[in-house]
Amino acid sequence: MARIYTLVNQKGGVGKTTTAINLSAYLAAFGKKVLLVDLDPQANATSSLGVDKYRLRGGVYEVLLGDSPAVPLILHNPRLKISLLPSSPSLAGAEVELVNELARESRLKQALAPIVDRYDYILIDCPPSLGLLTINGLVAAKDGVLIPVQCEYLALEGLGLLTQTLQKVKRALAPELDVRGVVLTMFDARTRLAADVVAEVKKHFPNKVFNTVIPRSVRLAEAPSYGLPILAYAPESRGARAYRSLAEEILQQDEAAENK
Questions:
Q1: What tens digit of pLDDT does each residue of 138-169 get?
Q2: Residue 8 host element (H or E)
Q3: Rama region for 214: left / alpha / beta (φ>0; ψ in -120 to 50; rest)
Q4: Sheet harboring 75-77: ordered strands across?
């Protein structure tokens, strides 16, 4: 049965989609069957894997509205060995259309239930907001939430609000919801501020921050424009080494948990 992790942060530009794409790529490279679910109407994860979001025959929007099961709409990239449930701009209307629907917060969880045995990992990339789409992602996060946090001061301001939201969803909709780990991104070793942010995040999430820190990297920023994860675009870059290390760290922790 797949481990399901949801990547969430209501602040944009913190490396959430970058982490979703590259973590998926390295987990697949290590032999895991991976499904990436793009739950963001901006569809950045979809386009970053070389898929034209304007020419899709369907995706997560149709799945959430109950118009189609997930399986026929999942795309597979044989080169990267990643499966993708894509998004498109039409998903922007889903929050309004789902408002009066029964069990609207658990639509994604229900849609993924029939396919959890097909994958080792399902990663869900949420929009940079705390609306109904993100709540669907949180309710579906059977094995926890991954929180990318940019190593800059303003990134800290939203952590309190995010923590409150996680607690509310846990109490009302998903009693098992927990923070799987915090990923520190866009770290610039030349600044003292970055080190201060790392210390503050570790204080806010004790024992939840991954050892691997993702550096600020031009190569990581360039890769999506080529429709590739960093593994395929610049495998020897600092960013590639960092995401490989993060995938290894998560795999080691998950395997240790299974052997307890």
A1: 999 999 999 999 988 777 777 888 888 899 99
A2: none
A3: beta
A4: 75-77, 82-85, 34-38, 121-125, 3-7, 145-150, 179-187, 209-215
Does this model's pTM top 0.90? My answer is yes
CB 4 within 8 A of CB 254: no
- Say which residue the tokens 């080529």 belong to: 226
The token duo for 245 is 């290390």
Domains of the chain by range and CATH?
Answer: 3-258 (3.40.50.300)
Tell me which amino acid residue 83 is. S
**pLDDT, tens digit (0-9, with 9 covering 90-100), for 213-242:** 999 999 999 999 999 999 999 999 999 999
- What is the amino acid identity at position 175? P
Q: How deeply is 41 buried, as exposed, middle or buried, from its count of CB atoms within 10 A (0-12, 13-18, 19+)? A: buried
